Amino acid sequence: MTKRAILLFSKPATPGRVKTRLIGPLSAEEAARLHEAFLLDLHDRFAGGPVELRIFWGLGPDEALPARPGGGRRQEGAELGERLRRAIEASADCEQVAVVGSDHPELSEASVARAFEALDEGADVVFGPALDGGYYLVGLRPRALRRELFEGIPWSTEKVLAASIARAGSLGLDVALLEPGCDVDRPEDLAPLAARLRREPDLAPRTLAALARLEPSAFGGRQG
Hints:
The chain is of the alpha/beta class. The protein has a single domain, classed as Spore Coat Polysaccharide Biosynthesis Protein SpsA, Chain A (Alpha-Beta Complex), CATH 3.90.550.10. 31% of the residues lie in helices and 16% in strands. The protein has helices spanning 28-46, 80-89, 109-120, 160-170, 190-199, 205-212, and strands at 4-10, 52-57, 73-74, 96-101, 125-129, 135-140, 175-177.
């Protein structure tokens, strides 16, 4: 059987350090609680499943690994591209990995399975396009990693996906794309997320409960 892993990139739920673009409509504490709900829903969905879950934490130099959820290891590197590359290199015991963040609480087991299927079918790299121009998942084979794939990318911009696809093409890599998904980073993302989760309340129950505790003003007058 092919050895696979999901590499989940996240940060501790420290107020003022996570989901900062939500602060204003939300307090720093509310934003941190929402971040933690996203993370725990993803952990509950994938931990103990058929694919191993490995958490990579973005920590300050003096920060310890958080107790909830337990386990994981530090991200290493100065910028996101280097941190991605080094996490994948650290997973060289796996034949295939899918790297995901904790900004997409609706990420489904089916989407991750499709990423691995695309690798089985011959793709060199798989991206899950995010609606903001980034990507919510990148899948590849650690032993075939090309470090240039993550170098010189304009991280945290709407050009991330396009630049990454272009870079993969320049390296001669075959790219497969999953269905688009929505990272949740901005206040205007909250009402659509709440509406979707009310239709599927078992998908991300912690996130749905955290959203239900917010004041209506946090949704900018929209609650789906």
